[in-house]
Structure prediction request, 128 residues.
Amino acid sequence: MRCLDSSFVVDLLAGEPPALRKAAELEGSGERLSIAVPAMAEVLMGAHYQGGSYLRKALELLAGLDILTADGAVAVDAGTLGAELLRRGTRASAADLLIAASVRVHRKVLLTRDRGFSTMPGLAVETY
Prediction:
């Protein structure tokens, strides 16, 4: 099962052709899609800021997704991942670490255009 990053959801809401093509492919597969809580919060922050029809479209899209919650196991994995990245000389935001850890703990594939996720060890990433 794929887990949608905020970049994919934002691109989909904006009607970006690569995201629209990928969404059509996913819809045809019947696969259940998910989103991690921090990615959902990122989407909702922008949606509430824009308001109106954008907010309505975002809420409708998000309502059809399974939500990957962030629990203690996700927090431990985020901390471990963040420390590993620091040892390698790179950094990631707390939100990105929690997204990556949610995907790793729940054994999903992260669908994103954010190339920064591809440097995270043990994270299955698909770009579009």
Remarks:
- The domain at 2-126 is CATH 3.40.50.1010 (Rossmann fold).
- The first helix runs from residue 6 to 13.
